[in-house]
Amino acid sequence: MYILNRACLSAMHILKQNGSSVQAVTEAIKQLENDPSTNAGYGSNLCLTGKVECDASLMTGKSGTFGAVGAVSGLKNPIETPFQMVTEAEKGFELIWQVSRFLAGDGAKQWAKSRKIPTIGDDDLIEPNAHEMYLKHIQMLVEEQESQNTDLGHDTVGAICIDSKGDISAGVSSGGISLKSPGRVGEAAMYGSGCWAQNAKGDFPGVACSTTGTGEQIMRTMFTYKCAERLLKEDDIQTAVIDALDNDFLESPMLCMYDQKSVGTIALRSQKSHGRTRVEFWFGHVTEDMGIGYLSGKMKAPKAFVSRKALSSDRIVSRGQLIS
User: Where, by residue number, is the active site (predicted)?
Assistant: First the structure.
């Protein structure tokens, strides 16, 4: 849980220095990308050719601006490039020329280099344990074996944040599934799939979601966008998250061909109530477990833990609390 604590503390440090929610989300995800135990940045799963190819995206609720990279190699912190895209768009650069919002492959790397974002050799992203797992999966493939107990690494890292101005942001980063085809782009780079952020406006609350799981399933259902929609409309946040996981994912007709389904999400909702801002943090998953960490300005320290199903027969786990 150390890495989750560190990510929360790094983000809070940004906020205490009057940084924005999008800066805080980016910093939290960078911390997660730098840790070899996560499937993002350094330590990511390897694709079929033994190379690391990452996806990442960022969305700011203030303007709805979105930036993403897909199937990109050689970026020390993939999330930095979507951050630069969002920053340029919000500075009004798109009025001068077309601002890139989604770049893939070498084009994404070259764009990052042109902005002086740190790049490294492709092999420098390969962590020893990830390479060992790659060789194991290759051996399984050669022997035409299938194992239900082998972890192919669906895990994605993500973060959501609201700052003192009420601006909300969300981000996500992933190395994708092990042995994926080169060039495969997962949900972490796709609009409405990996993350969503939307500031409060009028009678509608501000909401954010960041999602992990099987990319193809999340993309087929546009789960994250649908979860955000429910957060906007449902009075009870737990009902919103459970209905999204159940109705929009597990029971989705778009997933009828899958025997196993995998998704988990973190969410926040901010709304005015009796003259003060009420912020709720919630999470939910259909997987056996999911790592969670959160921190608010009123908390003395982050809270980090692994949420697990109490019974294997449980369909959904969903919990959270009012944090402000």
Answer: 156
pLDDT digits 0-9 by tens, 135-183: 777 777 666 554 444 455 557 899 999 999 999 999 999 999 888 899 9
Specify the higher pLDDT residue, 95 or 74. Answer: 74
Sequence-separated (6 or more) residues with CB below 8 Å from residue 210: 158, 159, 160, 170, 171, 172, 194, 195, 224, 265, 266
| Torsions phi, psi for 224 (to 5 deg) | -65, -40
Residues near 100 by Cβ (< 8 Å), separated by ≥ 6?
67, 85, 111
| Pairing mode of beta strands 195-198, 66-72 | unpaired
Task: Spell out the alpha helix ranges (H) of 234-297.
Answer: 237-245
| Residue 27, helix vs strand vs coil | helix
Query: Catalytic: 156?
Result: yes
Q: CA angle, 64 as apex, 296 and 282 as ends, to 5°?
A: 35
The percent of residues in the chain predicted with pLDDT above 90, rounded, is 78
Please tell me the total number of residues recorded for the chain in this structure. 324
Residue in 161, 168, 255, 272 with CA at minimum distance from that of residue 213? 255
Sign of the CA dihedral running 115, 156, 58, 4: negative
Contact 279, 322 (CB under 8 A): yes
**From 26, 38, 87, 156, active-site residue:** 156
